[in-house]
Amino acid sequence: MPANVTPQYEKAEQRYRQAADDEEKLAALQEMLSTIPKHKGTEKMQADIKRRISQLRKSAGEKPVAKGPDPFHVPRGGAGQVVLFGPPNCGKSALVAATTNAPVKVADYPYATAVPTPGMWAYEDVQIQLVDTPPVTAEHVPTGLFGTVRAADVICLVVDAAAAPLEQAEMLLGLFAEREVALRSVPRSEMAPADRSVYSALLAATKIDAAEPGAAETLRELYAGRIEVLGVSAVTGEGLKALRNRLWELLALIRVYTKEPGQPADMAKPFTLPVGSTVEELARQIHRDLPERMKYARLWGRGHFEGQHVHKTAPLQDKDIVEIHQ
Question: Do 141 and 270 lie in a common domain?
Fold first, then answer.
């Protein structure tokens, strides 16, 4: 039986191959185990992954029986995962609290966030997973945090626009440079899928309601061509919609709706796929055996006749409606 692994599994496997240390290898293996399809065709693969996890834990002097869940492993949710990364009191938690229902702790003192905390930010009819994380400094990055970061689809650097934002931004970028990770403000679809040394990213300058006028614009000019800068305020809501929309663009996803023959389309729960996906890839997301069973599909959307018959290799666009015939 073929394994038919998911794209999420393939990305985690690539991260494992490129891991710089045992900590990153362990995080990648745990992601592989959580995303691999659970059926008879993957039993040997699952056993091998568990064996490698056990070996890494033993080499680190850990006791698997006594060890609880990894607090820095964030199960994926929503259409895509965005991890926030910033220094103490930069406004990460306030940003997550203002845009999601996550139980984050917003405080005036530093280090209020001890472990990554995910929340869902609604983008029209889908959800973007936003992950608040413990703060970092030039001298200290919490053990396990870069495993969380490397598992993300998009990285959002966060600085306080009202408190030396340039120094904060340089510190954050330096931490990635030390690990030979490049950040680019371009959609994931424009990057080589196997290259996990380059990530889609942007920089959010928070607290612009309390900053000097033009603080975000100054950062934008200084980092032009290097990383995109957006000014936001969790207090007034300024810039939040623009940030959400840009994160969606960087995720490089499309929404596709399905319908049964003779029935209206299900517009409540779209499937999300990478930009450039085909009808065949949609069929595989519905069920791993469907691409082999399908005869043709009908397609409603931009650039097509209403209900046009298409082959499984037909490319899809955002908000297309597909009817698969077996």
Answer: no
